[in-house]
Specification:
206 residues; six-stranded mixed β-sheet
């Protein structure tokens, strides 16, 4: 089984990247392909190697926490790899884990593909099985906003996204340019993670 891949991203689509690893192109489905493709030169992606009778697929994540959480999610009845990928695209691992611990069904049902019954199964099946996943980031409090109600305005959401993007190395000029377009598309019900993904896409495509 493949545990991780290291190499440059040579192709990008909305749902996946293609990585060149020693001359072999691997198609890797990701929660946020634009974040992975941003890295210059080689990047390392942690892999879940999914084998079915009719397909072999690779799902990739920038951290071990996301890889571990993905594997826990697909153990829940009704959650397949595609739904699990959608969950991680709609919320950080720390936000999802905290919502499960807090039995926050309101947050969980806002994730793609998750209804009330599935959210209840997630809580029942995973609440006692997530020890150690995301602990370091949860301790910092960086992801607390993902488990609470949406911010009062699009500008409030953007302020959190902006700080996170600055930590990734983007300049004030780049972020001001993106906000001029993005501010017309951000609403109070949007989560920080959803806006982050939109902003990263704009920053990557220019």
């Amino acid at each position: 089984m493949i545990d991780f891949l290291r190499g440059p991203v040579v192709h990008l689509e909305n749902e996946y990247v293609v990585m060149d690893v020693h001359g072999v192109g691997y198609r890797v489905f990701c929660p946020n392909p634009y974040a992975i493709a941003k890295a210059e030169g080689e990047t390392m992606v942690y892999i879940h190697h999914h084998v079915r009778e009719d397909a072999i697929q690779l799902f990739g994540f920038p951290t071990r926490d996301e890889q571990k959480l993905f594997r826990k999610l697909i153990e829940v009845s009704g959650i397949g790899p595609r739904v699990a990928l959608g969950i991680l695209s709609g919320g950080s691992p720390e936000g999802v884990i905290t919502a499960i611990y807090q039995e926050n069904i309101t947050f969980l049902t806002k994730l793609p593909g998750i209804g009330k019954k599935t959210a209840q199964r997630m809580i029942l099946d995973l609440k006692d099985k997530l020890d150690g996943i995301g602990d370091s980031m949860m301790a910092t409090g960086l992801f607390a906003a993902t488990t609470t109600a949406p911010a009062a305005s699009g500008g409030d959401v953007w302020s959190e996204v902006r700080e996170a993007l600055k930590a990734l190395g983007y300049t004030d000029t780049e972020l001001d340019r993106v906000w001029q377009t993005l501010k017309h598309e951000v609403f109070p019900e949007d989560t920080v993670d959803a806006v982050m993904k939109r902003a990263l896409k704009m920053l990557y495509t220019g």
